[in-house]
Amino acid sequence: MRKMHLHLTNILLKKELYSYFTSPLPYLLACIFIFLLGWNFFHSLVTSKEDQMVSLSNSVIIPIFGNINFLFLFIAPLLTMRSFAEEKRDQTIELLFTSSLTDLEIIVAKYLAVISVTLFILLFTTIFPIILALSGYNDWPIIFSNYLGTIINIACYLAVGILISSCTQNQILSALISFALLVFLLLLAHSSNIISNFSLGQMVAYLSLSNHLWAFSAGAINSSDLIYYFSFIIFIIFLTHRSLSRRKW
Amino acid sequence: MEHDQKVAVLIQNLHKNYSGNMALRGLNLEIYDGEIHGLLGPNGAGKSTTMKILAGITAPTSGEIFLWGKNPYANPNDRSNLIGYLPENPPLYLDMRVKDFLLFNLRIHCNQALAQTLAKKQQQYDVVAAALEKLQITDIAKRLIGNLSKGYRQRVALAALLVFSPKLLILDEPTVGLDPLSLIEIRNIIKSLAKEHTIIFTSHQLAEVSSICSAITIIHHGRAVWKTELKGEGMPTNLEQKFLEVIHAENASTSN
What we know:
The structure holds 2 protein chains of 2 kinds. Chain A is mainly α. Helices cover 80% and strands 0% of the residues of chain A. Chain A starts with 5 loop residues before the first helix and ends with a helix. Chain B contains 9 helices and 9 strands. The longest helix of chain B is centred in the C-terminal third of the chain and has 17 residues, at 239-255. Classes of the chains: A mainly alpha, B alpha/beta.
């Protein structure tokens, strides 16, 4: 197997970023996202003032990051739906298939592009810790672990979106199926509680994405959670690679 | 007939099965260096499938293809600047400017050898400028592709192939939907390209094929059923009549 050529990946990554940032989608999503979070932040602040017993981390930071992860259940499919589906519909995927790029390089470039757009949207959320810091809040390890957990968790959402986008040429269908699959992965955590078989329940709970986010929320970075997340991403990218290469030589 | 030219494309016993539907049933084809080789056939005959397989987009179910004696399909790097493929709907990024698109196309088709030749950015710009000039689209270099007419888009798509100078050009109905003026211009451009490239060309316009191509193969039911020799020696005077004869004869033999 040929080794990855980073300069080729970089060329496609730049082109993808150009396409994203010259379209209104990331800006529109960022506006809606930050409006909803801002409203939620203000509401949490007011509530925390009424209940002085609860720390700002518990009353504001952790709920805010919970909501970021929840909102990205909707945003991630919208960001990834065009990755492959649009190229297939417009047949520009054939341009990439006949180029020097391997399937893996195409997937990595598109994945990194959508992660970059996500980081751009998340950049706006830094306003919330800054506002809290101005009023004396200084629990930075909690903020760091929440950001890390959120970015890795959303990276899993995006990997699922890219996979589904590679299976269809209909962008709307791609977004809907991705969303359904992400909700299913979220609901696995709740399903595990009602499974009577303990071992099976544990296994189902382990597979749920959200169960691995709790430790990050509490400020703990566990290697087991990191291994789970990275294994999940690698497995989904492997499936995307299979999905693309079944069409080729 | 003996040919002085080298065999550029050799297709041996090519089969393609799309979920039970046999698109190709043992296609054999030889295309010589420097030819403009026309592939003719009714809809569903297997022309586009053959072209997609040649371009490396789709895998055949069985059979072999050699380009200039080598099988370049295992590694994208081996074929990326050997084959230029233009499908019926030109693959263009409508949100890009013409110049940027050509530069992007050059860069993603660069294998190691070409990358060394075009190491400096200025050399890449020069290649793009030459392709723009060859297709007479220098004046639209800074325009968005999405704002161009179909004729200009077709020229941009052709220029995007020329930037990496592939030895084999595969053109799937490149003149479909063009106005008469664009059609004549694109035809002339294709003819001029034959000096430096081997070209495989499809069209449903038989008159167009006979005026452009130096050799013709008729494909029907996934097989090559008739082939001319070089232009001037074996080209039938009435291609339309010959085409109908071949197709009817093939249909009759299949039904028997």
